[in-house]
Amino acid sequence: MSTLRTDTFTCVRCGLTVSAFAPDGARRNHCPSCLHSLHVLDHAEGGPSECRSRMAPIAIAVLREGDWMLIHRCAGCGELTSNPVRQDDNQLILMRMAVRPLAEPPFPLEPFGGM
Ligand SMILES: [Zn+2]
Ligand SMILES: [Zn+2]
Fold first, then answer.
1. β-bridge partners, 61
2. Domain named RNHCP: which ranges (predicted)?
3. Ligand with an atom nearest the CA of residue 57
4. Residue 2 has pLDDT above 60, yes or no
5. Percent of residues, the chain, with pLDDT higher than 90
């Protein structure tokens, strides 16, 4: 038996075996294929979380430096977290989330028609 630690986790949604490190060496916490995560860290207290519920990607936030952040919401406790987007994350899902607010504005667009 090898004692070598394998830094992988299994995606709770699609079952993909995910390396805990992105190609650039940065630690990742979400699946690059479906972008789902698991609530294992308590972001408010900075320690491990008892929750361990599935976290769904709900939005993209762009920081002032231009970095893209992925916003997750926990299905169990509702906590929101933000994590850096990694270079091999599913670009189709990322783009879909990035344009969703433009496609579904929370106000009627009609007034702009007469401008
Ligand atoms: Zn997945
Ligand atoms: Zn949770």
1. 69
2. 7-95
3. 1
4. no
5. 56
